[in-house]
Amino acid sequence: xxxxxxxxxxxxxxxxxxxxxxxxxxxxxxxxxxxxxxxxxxxxxxxxxxxxxxxxxxxxxxxxxxxxxxxxxxxxxxxxxxxxxxxxxxxxxxxxxxxxxxxxxxxxxxxxxxxxxxxxxxxxxxxxxxxxxxxxxxxxxxxxxxxxxxxxxxxxxxxxxxxxxxxxxxxxxxxxxxxxxxxxxxxxxxxxxxxxxxxxxxxxxxxxxxxxxxxxxxxxxxxxxxxxxxxxxxxxxxxxxxxxxxxxxxxxxxxxxxxxxxxxxxxxxxxxxxxxxxxxxxxxxxxxxxxxxxxxxxxxxxxxxxxx
Length: 308
Ligand SMILES: Cc1cc2nc3c(=O)[nH]c(=O)nc-3n(C[C@H](O)[C@H](O)[C@H](O)COP(=O)(O)OP(=O)(O)OC[C@H]3O[C@@H](n4cnc5c(N)ncnc54)[C@H](O)[C@@H]3O)c2cc1C
Fold this sequence. Notes:
By secondary structure, the chain is an alpha+beta fold. The protein has seven helices and nine strands, in the order ααααβββββββαββαα. The strands form two sheets. Strands 1, 2, 3, 4, 5, 6 and 7 form a seven-stranded mixed sheet that branches. Strands 8-9 form a two-stranded antiparallel ribbon.
């Protein structure tokens, strides 16, 4: 985590003076890391993805979080965000009855006099529960709304979020995911009531980008391990790499990897009219309207993860 934060993999493109090409530089760092250690990617991705939304919509009470959000430090201490040298942000959408269907979320949000909200309900998947805050979907009077829910409140007391248990994730123990209950936890709305999906998808779109990069990195790692083995292992008097059927398998892996790399190059970055352009221009122009970009991102992410 310290290495990832020191290399700004969680926030490099969001600096005020970010240089052109910075999105690509950050993607390259993410992919290099993902090839050796995937367990730390989730907190980095979620923080990366939440930061542009928070830069726009952070509630005034938490305005001082901007500096630690953009820092190059990993700070694991349990302190209010403003006292920390670096922050992590998570995401709480998924509920038992809904899963992908977040409109069926049942967590309730009651507005208080000071403009904050009290959240009551559950989340079935709440990764990186030690994050300094989560962006959480809950039903307010005006509909599904996105809330900023800090782990510790500004006065240093714990927010009323109870972790029921940690998930068993098929052997992945490097990164905790939990089941959580909100027992009148305090949250602050990001955007208007009823705009929850629109707001949280600003984060979700960027997490899809990293899902695609992560799958690509696993494929790259798999190809390099396969090549290493095929070059040094001998069978029937030949190195494996010289046997025709093995060459066919390795060639197919290399082609798929190259195809995925090119699709990553055409990834539409949010809010921009161009793409990441990390490779040569594709013969097919990438989509330009915001809705086409959103669909393109979802499709690319699904396709790349499936092949990976
Ligand atoms: C490792 C891990 C970490 C996670 N961390 C978080 C987290 O931090 N925060 C969070 O909020 N969630 C998190 N999730 C939950 C994740 O977002 C959900 O698993 C996801 O939204 C799918 O919900 P579900 O598992 O209930 O599947 P369901 O929604 O029940 O879907 C079941 C199947 O139906 C398919 N399906 C769903 N809708 C459609 C449709 N309209 N058409 C066709 N097929 C469909 C799905 O592709 C899937 O194959 C995490 C999940 C995992 C595995």
